Structure formats: structure tokens, C-alpha cells
Amino acid sequence: MVLSPWRYNASLRGWRGARVWIPDCVEVWRVAEITRDYKEGDDILHLRLEDGSALAYPIEFQLPPLCNPDCLSGADDLVALSYLHEPAVLHSLRRRFLEANAIYTYCGIILVAINPYKPLPIYEEEVIYAYSGREMGDMDPHIFALAEEAYKQMVRFGKNQSLIISGESGAGKTASAKYAMRYFTTVGGCLGHSSMEEKVLASSPIMEAFGNAKTIRNDNSSRFGKYIEIGFSQAHVTGAIIKTYLLEKSRVTFQVKAERNYHIFYQLCASATLPELQGLGLRGAESFHYTCQGQCTTAQSTDDAADLDSTRHAFSLLGVPEANQLELFSILAAILHLGNIVVRGRDRRGDGCFVEPADEALGLFCTLLGVEASQVMRWLCHRKLVTAGETYLKPLSRQQALNSQDALAKHMYGQVFRWIVSRVNRALRSLEGHHTSIGILDIYGFEMFEQNSFEQFCINYANEKLQQLFNLHVFKLEQEEYVTEEIPWVFVDFCDNRPCIELIEGRLGILDLLNEECKMPQGSDRSWAQKLYQTHLSSSHFQMPKRANEHPACPVEYQCDGFVEKNRDAVPEELVGLLRASKKSALLAELFLEEGDGPVSLQSRRSSGPRMAGRPSRRSLPSSQKSKKSISSQFKASLNRLMETLGSTTPHYIRCIKPNDGKQPFVFDSRRAVEQLRACGVLETVRISASGYPSRWTYQEFLERYRALVSREELMGTDEKQICSLALERLLQDPSKYQCGKSKVFFRAGQVAYLEDLRYRRLRAACTLLQRHLRGWLARRRFGRARAAAVCLQRHARGMLARRFARMLRRTRAAVMLQKTLRMVLARRSYLRVRQAVITIQAFARGMFARHLYQQMVWHQKAVVIQAAVRGWLAHYSRLRGAVIYLQCCYRRVQACRELRRLRVEARSVEHYKQLHKGMEIKVIQLQCRLDEQAQEKQRLVEQLSGLNAAHAEEVQCLRAELQRLREDVARDTQVQQLQERLAELERHSVKSCLGQEVEELRQRLAEVEAMKLQLGEERDALVQRMSEQSQDLEEQHQRAARESQGLLQELEEERARYQSLVQEYARLEQGYENLRDEVAFHRQSTLRRSPSSESFLGSESSYLSSMSTAPSRDGSDQQAEGLEERWQPVPEGLQPQPSGEVLLNGGMGQDPFEKAYLLLLGQLNAVNEELARTREELRRSKASVEPEERKPLDFLKRRNIAEMLGLGRSPDKAAVDDDLKHAYDAVQVANRLLASQLQEEKQQHEEEVEGLHLNIYSLKQLSQQQAALIQDLQRDQGQEGLQHHVLRLKEENWELAQKLEKQERATLKLQKQLRAYANKIQELAAKREATGPAQELAASAVVLSRSPMVPSLAGLSQAMLAWRMEDEGRIIKAIITDYKPQSSPGALPDLPAYILFLCFRHADHCCDEPRARSLLDAAIDAIKRVMKKHSDDFDVVVLWLANTCRLLNCLRQYSQDESYWQGNTARQNKHRLQNVDPQSSCHSLGALSVQLYQQLIRTAEKRLKPMIVAAMLESEPIQGLSSSCPSGHRQSSAAPAHTLPELLQQLGSFHAALDRHGLAPSVGHQALRQLLFLISGTTLNYLLLRKDTCSWSRGIQLRYNISQLEQWLRAEGLQQSGAREVLEPLVQAAQLLQVKKVTEEDAGALCSLCTVLSPQQVVKILRAYTPAVGLEERISPSFISSVEKQLQDQYGGGPSQLLVDTSHLFPVHLPFTASPLHLDELRIPDALGLAFLVRL
Fold first, then answer.
1. What is the CA radius of gyration of the chain?
2. Pairing between strand 110-114 and 44-49?
3. What is the rounded CA–CA span in Å between residue 875 and residue 945?
4. What is the C-alpha separation between 1733 and 1714, in angstroms, rounded?
5. Segment 757-776, tens digit of pLDDT
6. Contact in structure between 1667 and 1709 (CB atoms under 8 Å)
């Protein structure tokens, strides 16, 4: 270890002010500053400690190690430190752990993980995806980064990898292994088995339950070593296998104080009340000897009952049946009962022992395992000795019997553990195997206790082997680095522990002597110790008086007691034989197989199934004990296999450190930490690195950091390597201090610190120069300001004196003027006094007359008020009268409705049909008259209300006038006061007595005025108060309405979000269904073949269907059957073949076939007439359903017979008779004419009935609408509860009427379908006549078709539709969706396919063909989904079909019957509204498809943006020269960013252009861009939180500039109001947080007020990761961070908050309705689309 790097720079600078590390008994190392220069030969170093005290440090052998510069302290990689030594490593780990809360640190190839003893939000799924695909140096140190490196190397090079996790108990090894497993299963996914990743993760709770226990140091300590090998195939997880090492079986029978047995025992005891565990005899854990020895039956933060549920759930996931679980639990319960069996000694000497037969524990043990109690009692207390000729029973002492009892318990638990491992491996094993694998080794670290036994010896032996492998790997990597960079390499000797390993496992080593002693009949620990002293006492790694193998870090002492016995692992064969012979359960027989009693052989058989328990047991011979392998031999063999496995993989090391023994969160004990660092190989890595060139920088990093030290001439070069070489030759001067490689420059230890010092001096000199010039400029500016101020003061002083002299002159002149004016005023005042007295007398006289007039006006006003009150009461009476009238109207309406129902019941017969129509007309007229009366009553009420409003307005106006008069009275009061003063003056000066009475009268009048004024003032206050109360009520109502509207908007957004999530889930399920359907179709194609008979059957059926209807059948058997049912529904019962018909057909074979067909058609027509009459009668009776819905379709054979009877399925022989056809043609013509005339008459009658029903429906709808409008008006005017109840009752009645009307409409539609079927038949006959008959018959059939209401003529069709047939559906979809390319039709509308589909939909609506319309839209939706599945990564295609889907949806809304969408329509557009088909269900389907397309659009854009975000926002430097931070280590990539900010903006611009180009609604485009900017903001913020190197002031400047560029782009594109700026606010605040001052408490308050969007965890994380600029900023103090954290918790509460932003969150999209300005008849369809088969109507 290089502890003295002074020799590299001692001659270059003085030592005063340098900081060094000195040893300390408490903190291990502490910092001190040199106060005097050091010279060669000095014995004492003068230091000053951190507390200010002086220290004379004696120099004995070497100088104390130097401290690293501040820029390197706390680096991510310890190898990047300039001075590599123990105190530097310890200080960096402590600083990162306490100040930055960073628990992970690199040290070369090692990842050092410190247990925080506190849950941290750094293992979420977002963090996994953030590290996935990133290089190891791009992000902060993390176990996910190391796992990603292993995964990446496995995928790239196809080589197996391994993660070696080691550390003390409680250091976090098990948790690290679980995190690594979760990362691999999340990133790798699964191939072929959807539940394999769940199984891999489910193995952890099982292994923890059976292999972990609470110790003094750890509540969940793994008491065994395990190697988990996860298999991969094509980078996907295919399976796993677990290998275990050295289970601590002694814990089953003994635990020290404050420790527990294995978790599974306490889980069973805590769940003893479960019904399935009632028969096991379990109680509390304190009741069993094997679980209460540690006096600690519970553990903190552990719920044993819940853990058992997790364990059982994991067993179920791994395929272990419930029966096997219960058998396993019974065996574990038997082990507990075995420990409670009481063994008693027979005498004091202890020669024999016995067990009570009535022992409860013995009975439970035997019952659970199915063995005899007598046999167990016998072999617990005796041992069988077998000699050559005889067998003896030897009684055991009580202690020997207890040892035998414990040995059986340990053996049973060991077998159970091996069986569990085998079952887990069986569940995790992949049938197809794997190509590569990643192994995770979770093994115990180096252990050293006060008393170390056999277990610690084996554990330390395993660590010695791993340490040797680690040293060789580190040395190999170091050598490869130098060879790659072509640096001269000199072999460096390092501490090799090979002699120690040879001492343990070599020939005649410790293990050999131990095995030899175990084979001796009388072997003991003492004799084995003597052999060790005789053999290895001369070894430097072995010492007396206690046996020790010396670890490179420190010696370890062992106690030999128990070594021999533990190595033998003797098991009482007689008791094992009893268990083997038990027939209680198959699991017990599988655990104790006779063949191969050794653990290795049992473990090798873990893949075999359970064996039969009926096999008789053999007595074990003593030779079997001799052939059994010892524990040390088994462990040595398994360890060698492990070393071979690790040697064939690329290892990655994780060293877990336990920071303190008290398990306190974020408390760092330096002494405990340095002990573990010395033992786990971290310092060895540092020593090997320090022996060569530990500091390694790329040339680009060197130039960015030390450009200030490079001269101008050196910068003239173009090669970075040449520039660096020239600069280093000038700066360091000694070539041995550095080496220039191919891509990096290598430095000796201490040289980076020296370069940092030179850079600091250069920057300090530059700062001094800048300060000098700045201070001079400030002094000159200060002098100029002082001189200007003096001149200004002089100017103002002189002006003040001049103004003072001028003021004196003005005052003198003013005094003369005042004297003159005063004399004039006195003379005038005496004249005016006399004049004023005369005027006062006149005023009082006139006032008297005015008051008389005012009193009359007041009386008049009061009369008016009384009249107004009376009229108001009369108006209120009128309103009450109107309400009563309304109630009477409502009651009479109810009576009328009841009378209407009674009349309907009476009018159900056919004879009253005409009276029904007359009654309906009379009722409609009565209702219309009543409605007119109600309208007049409403108009009268409205007039009364307007009159009241006018009266109220007049009253308010009068009050305002009165208020104005009061104000005038107040003004008069002032005049009165003046008159009083004048009156008093007159009384004093006047001597006339006649004025006294007048004055008294005036005083009385004045008192009256005062009283009236007070009264009016009170009225005014009351009026003002009432107005304020009304205004306050109005304000409260307004606020309430605003809150309710806000709540409704929020509920709408939540409902929209839930709906869109459901749509997304539906899309996912639909995609899964399509995949399964494709797979099933593929299997069917490969396995199923159609027979000739089925083909002929299908052919006959299709020919029959084509003969019965002109419309083609749908694709698919289901659709064919559905269409067949629809076509056969109108066929009446009379058409079915009856017995008479059969006789006619069978008996009339000799007649003419055309005559038979004619007779059949006549019978069919008669049946149709009867059916129509029956349907009309049912319609009159208003039945709920129609009879054709309940009928079943005819049998296929009957349909074939009917086809033969119609002459459509005749044989070729009969068809050859041409002469018969010519003679029979006239008969067919006559039949056709008769059929057409009768059908026309039926159509006319049906039309009249339908028109009458439509009129009734229309009148009832109008009546219902008028009633609803009247009810709404009355509800607004009246608030009484009785009226509301009556209105609700009327609404229910209207709803019932509407339901009946809907039923009638459905019946009408079904009749129309029947007529359409008959019209199709006539069209078939007309087509045949057209092919064979004369032109006159063709004209007659055309006349018949033109009169049919279901087949409209061209003259009556609209001019905004495309005529198409059902068989053209596939061609339409193929032309405008599947094969549609916008480039083939330049100049066409972007949403042309939507308009074409809507025109075809209008034609189906015009033809009243709702199934055809829905079929077209369903086919279009399916085609769009297929196109999206094929082009899911094409942004333009997704935008195209999103725009077309939205346009089609808007067209269906715009031209529907909903009046709310008609506001923007023109008169021509209103003519094109849909009339017959309700598009609501189609709108719902299209809305769901639009949401799916929008989400696909976002996913497609995210795939393109995600690789660009981090590089463009964080790594690119648009402002050159700001970033000069120190590199984090040799892992960090020095390449230029893959993407820049202009590229990101260009990509966003292309997205925006595509949205505009394809005609997508601007609001939808704004929402999409807002979502993308949220992704940019969230991803950037997540990487800012996960990368310490980005948290600096310079990076904050760069980030704020990049955000401003995004904002400028938003303004340039006109997207300021799109809401995208708000999603950037967290990133803006993060950038500002990096720039603000962070020192004082005021700064903390300002920072908390600034960060309003960031969560407290995010703010604290950024502050802890903040890296200050060296020499310019101070490091953020922990007290400041604590203050900010406390203020944020007080401000936002202490609830849990998320550290990372969930970038997968999708804002709910809103698809607004936008009416199309295009007229449908103006649409132009290009010829390139190939739609010539569509007829434009």
C-alpha cells in the first residue's frame, strides 16, 4: 500500500498548509494541517488539528498520508483518488454515506454497498428501467448498474457471468441478491413461461424461511451459502437453479442469548390456530425447547404469521401441493416435539437413562411421524454395537442420549432443507435448457468472534479461496488495462494467501489431519490438536497456544472443542431406520432414503421423484459409518466445484459493509468499517491499483479539466494526445510520474493532486487579476460619483440661497397687499352682515311654505307604498291561484292518462280499430287544447312575473330616489345649522319681540326635521344591510356554483382517465385474443382437413343461401349462421311443410312442375297475408315482443326440400327438358303477375298503417317534449316538494310511453325487414324474367320494384352518398384502409378515407339497412387495427388513422339526430343527416379506437425520443466552457453525446408537422405534445436524480438554457396555451435549485418557497448529490440539508412521496367535437383509389 506519495512532489512546493491523515484510536484516522514546512531529516511534524489544538507528530518510519483535493473527495470510484490509501478510502465512503446518503461506491471492479438500515426509494421499477441499457459509468453507482453490466456482457459476448456478494452478517447480502434477481427477471423477462420470473422471485421467501434466522447482528441472517444460477436464452430468463453450502444445523438445537432458531419454526408457532395446523400440537414458541433457548421469540419488524402466508404462497407458485406442505409442516412440528422429550437419568452416576412412556412430546412426535413410541424410547436411550458374531445393546448416559436426540433433530432438518432445495430447483428448471447464465453467489463473509468454532473455520476457509480468486482477477484486469494502452508493465508482487490455503487443504493439512482423526475409534479434539502442533508449528500462519490460520488482514483464533464431532456429523442409525420404515407419508420416505446417506448423494437425487415407503429397512453396519464422507470433505469438494464454476465466468464483486452494530440508520462507525474493508479485499484492490498508475484520464477529459494550464502554443496542435504530452512535459518534467497511452494518460499517485494545486493557483491568479481590475474600476466609479455629488450639492446650495432672498422680497410685497385688502374686507363685512340678516328672514319664511309642501308629498308617498303592498299581496294571491290551477291541470292530466289506459284496454279488439284511431285523434286534439291552455297560463304567469319584476324595479327606484332626498335633507341640515347660528346672532342683536315666536316655531320644525332624518337614516341603514346580505348570498351562490363546476370537471377528468385505462386494458386483452386466435388458426390449418362430404354440404348450403337472398353471406361460419337466421326470421309458420303439403307434393308427381311451383307460391302468399294480419293485430295490442324473434330457423333438409319444390335445385336430367320449360313459361308469368299484384296491395296497406303509426308517434313525441319543457319551466318557477313529486311521476309516465313507442318502432322495423325479404324474392324473379322473358315482363317487374318503398328510385335519393353492395365491403376496406397510401393521391384530403366510409354509411342508412352499416364500420375498425399492428412503429401511419378515426367519429356526430351537434351545420349539411340508423354504438366503438390510436401514437413517439432525451438535455453542452468538473473515474464514457438539443427539437418539429399535415385536431395535437414534453421533463429529472455528476452549478446553467430553447420552440410553434409549459416546471425548478445560494437559513426558506412542484425527497436528493465548484463554492452542510428537509416536511406533510417521476403515466385524452366545414356532395374521390365500383348518388 502506497502510504507516502510525498516523494513525487516534495521538491516542488513547501508543505505548510497541506493536510495529512494521522492515526486515531476512536475515528481510526483524522485530518490535521501542517503548520511548518517539512525538511528532510526532521523527526517531528508540526500539525494543527480540526479543533484548533497543536500537535507534534513524531515521524518514526514514514510520513503520514496526504489528503486528496476536495474535487476528488467523495468520488464515485475510489480508484480515481489521487492518493490511494486506507484513510482516503474510509473518508470517501464516510462522506458519501453521511452527506450524500449514497450507499453504493465503486472501487475498481468492486461495488461497495453499505447497509443504510433504512428503506430507500432507489429500487423502484422506474429505477430499473433507468439503468437498463446504460453504461456503467453513465449513472451513479448502484447494484442495478453492476447487474446491467453483467447482463450486457452476457448478451454481447455470450459468456457466463457471476455476481459474488460477500460481507458480514447484517451487511445486506441477502437484500442485494434479491435486488439483483429482481433486476434480471425484470429486464430479461421470460421466454415461453409467463410465470418463470414469479417463480424465481418466489424462491427467496422459501429459502429465507428455512435458511435464515435472527442473530445478534442481523434479524434476517442467512445461515447458509447459496449460488443462484439464472439461465438465459436469447436474453430472456428461462429458468434457475440453486446450490447451497454449509447449512448451520447446530442452530436447530442450540441458540445463544438474543438469537432465534430458523424462521419457519416461529412462523408455524405463530399460525398454530389455523384449522389445517390444529392437529400438529403446536403452541407458542416459548413452549418449545428448540425455540426458547435464546430468550427471544419475536423479532422487530417481523410478522411471523404473515410470513408463513408468504411462504405458503411461494410454495404454491413453485408447484408444491397443499398436501406436501402439510406433511412438511408436520415433520417440522415433530422436530419441535422431539426437543421437548424429557430424558431422565437412572442414578446419580449417569450410567443409564430412560424416557417416560406418558411423555406428551413423545406421543406427539410418534403420532406425527407414524413410528412406535416404544422403539423411540428404546433407541433414544440405547446404542447397538455390532461385532463379528454378536450384537449388543449399550445403555447411554443422559448426556449421550441428549446428544443423540439433538443429532436426530439436526439430521431431520438437514434432510428437509435439502428436499426443499431440490423441489425449488425442480420448479425453476427449464425443459429447453439455457445458452448462457448469470450466477449470484450469496455467501458468508469473513467471521471473527470471541469464540470461533468449526463453522467459522469453514466459512473463513471459503473466503480465503474467494479472496485468492479475487486477487488473481484484479491483477489480470490491471494487466489487461496496461497492455491495451501499451503502457510498460512491471510485475508487482501482491499479498497472496496461497500458503494459508495450502495450510488448510494441502497434504497433511488441517483438513487431512481432522479427517484422519475422525476415522479413529477413539479420536478426540485433544489428540488432533497435538498432531497439528507437531506438524505445522513451524508455519508462519499457525501459532500456539491456540490454533489459528492467519488472514492477510488479521489473525483468527479457533477453539478446538467440537471440531471432531461436528466433522463426523454422526447420526443415530437406529432412529433414522425407524423414520425410514414409517408409512405415515410419502414425503417422510423420500427424505430418509436408505441409499446414499450422505448429503451429497441426497442432493444429487433431488430431481428424482418420490419413492415408495414400503421398502423394508436394513440395519446399518458400522462399515457404513466409515464409508461416509466427513463434513469438511463434502465442503471442500463443493467449494472446489464452486471455484471451477466461478472461474469459468466473468466475476463481478459486491462487498457489503455493515456501518454499525446498533442497526441505526445512517450511522457510520469507522472502526467497524475499516475492519471489514481490510477483510473483504477492498484495500487490496486499492493497493494493487496504487502500485502502478492509479489515476487514468482520457485526453479529452484532461484538456477539459486542465485547459487553464495549457499554453497558447501547445493549443495550436490538432492532436489531443500531442497537446497533453507537451503540457505534461512542461508541468511534471519527470517522465516516470506519468505515461501516455493510446487513449488515456496515466498518472502516478499524487500527481493529480499536484495538477489540481497548479490549476488552483492558476485560477487564483486569474481571479486576483480580475479582482484587481474590477476593484480599480469600482474605485474610479466611486470617485466619479462623489465628485458629481459635490458639484450637485454646491449647485443646490447656491440655488437655495437665491430662492430664500427672492422669498423675502415677495413676503414684503405681500404684507402691503394684505393690509390694503384687510381694511377693504372689514368695511365690506359690516355691509354684508346687514344684508345677510334680511336674506335670513326671507329664507325662514320661504322654508315654512316649503315644509308644508314637503309634508303633503310625504303623505302622498306613504299612500303609494300602501298601494304597492296591497297590489303585491294581490299578485302573490294570483301566483298561488296559478299554482293551484297547475295542480288541477296535473291531476286532470293523470286522470286523462288513466282514462287513456282504460280506453286502450277496451280498444284491443280488432272491431274497435277505427274507433281507436278516432279516439286517438280526439285525445290528441284535447291534449293539444290542454297544452294551449297551459301555454296561455304559463304566458299569464310570465306576464305576472314580469309585472312583479317591474314593480320591484320601481320600488327600488323609489327607494333610491328617497335615498337621494335624504342626502339632500342632510345638506339642508347643514344649512339649518347655519341658520341657527344666524338666528342666535339675530336674537342677541335684535330687540324686536315679534321674532321670538317665529324662532320657537322654527325650532319645533327643526326638531321634526331631525326626527324625520333619524327615521330615514334607519330605513336607509336597513336597506343597505338588506342589499349587502343579498349581494353576499349571491356571492356565496356564485362560489358554490364554481366549486360544484370544479368538482364536476374533476370528476369528468377522473372518469375520462378511468375510461381510457379501460380502453387500454381492452386493447391489450384484444391483442392477446388476436394472438391466441392466430395461433389456434395456425394449429387448425396444420391439423384439420375438410372432407368431400362437408365440402358438398357447404356448397349446397351456400347455393341455397344465394338463392334465397341477393345479399352475400358474411365471412366466417358464425356470420353465415347469423345471416341465415336473419333471412329466415320473416318466414311465417304457414311456409313450413305441413302434412297436407307433403301429400300434395308426393301425390302430384305427375303434374307439371311449374304448376306445382305456382300452387306452392299461392300457398306461401296466403300464409304471408295471414302472418301480416296477425302481426298488425299484435301491433294494435302493443305486445312487448314480436313472434318472429321466438321462432327457430327451419331445418336444413326442409330448406333443401323447399328449394327443390321451387324448382331451384333440379337435377341436370330434368333441366335438359327444354320443351317442357317453353310450354310452362306462360304459367310462371301468370303466377308472377298475380304474386306481384297481391304483394303490392299488401305493401300499400302496410304503408298506410306505418304512416299512421309514425304520425301517432310524432304527435306523442311532440306532446312529451312540450310536457318536459313545461315541467322544466315550472321547476324553475316553483320549488315546492309536492310539485316536484308530481313532476317526477309525470316523468315516469312519459318514460313508460316512450318505452311503448320504442317497442312499436322496433315492431315497425321488423315489418320493414320482412317486406325487404319479399322484395328481394321479387327481384330474383324479375332477374330471371329479364334473362329469358320478353321486354314487356321486364317493364312490368320494373314498375313493381319502383313502387316498393324499400328500394328507392334514383330520383328520390340524396346526392351525398356512395351506393355499394354487401359483397363490395372487402374491396372498399382494402382500397381505403389496407392498401391506402396518401402519396398515391396528391392533393387529396388527409381524412379522405373517413369521408368515403361515411358516404357508404349514409347509403346503408338511406336503405334502412342497419346490419350492413354496422358491418361496414366493424370491418373498418378491424382493418385499422390490423394496419396498426403491422405499422406500429410508423408515426405517420398512426397519425393518419388517428385523424381519420376522429373525423369519422365527428361526422357520425355531426349528421346524427342529436341537435347539440347541429350548431355549426349549414342548411345543405342538415339535409344530409342520418334518418334511420342510430350511430351511438358506432360512436362508442370509434371513440375507444381513437383512444387506442392516441396511446399508440404516444408510444411510437416515445420510442424515438427516449434515446435522445438524456444526451440532448443533460450531456450536450450548447454553452461551451462551463463544464469543467472532475471525472468520476475510468468507467465514465468520454465520447461526445449521441444526440444534441437541435436534433431533439427537430424531432419534435417533425412530430408537430406530421400532426398538422394529416389534419389532426389542434387540441389533440396539443395534448400529444404535452405528453411528449412530460416524458422529456420526467426522464431528464430522473436521470438528474440518479447521476451525481449532473448536480452542479454549471450543469444547472446548461439545463436552464436547454429548457429555454424548448420554451422558445413552443412559442415559435404557437403552443404556449397547450399546457406543455406546465409539465416543464419541475425541471425548471430543479435547474433553479442547482443555481441558487445554499448556505444560510434564509436561503433554505427561499429554496423551499421556490420548489413548489418538486417533492421533498427530490429536493433533498439533489442537495445531497450537489457537487460544488472547487475553490469557488463551499460544500453544502448537512445542517442546511436537514433544515430544508424539515421545512419541506412541515410544508408538505410527512407522507410518502415518490423519488422518481412515473414517465409511463398518460394524461387522459379529450377528443373534442369539431364539425366538418366540407359539404359531402362536394367531395372529390381520386381515380387512383380504384373505387369505380361505387356509384355516386
1. 51
2. unpaired
3. 9
4. 31
5. 788 788 888 888 999 999 99
6. no
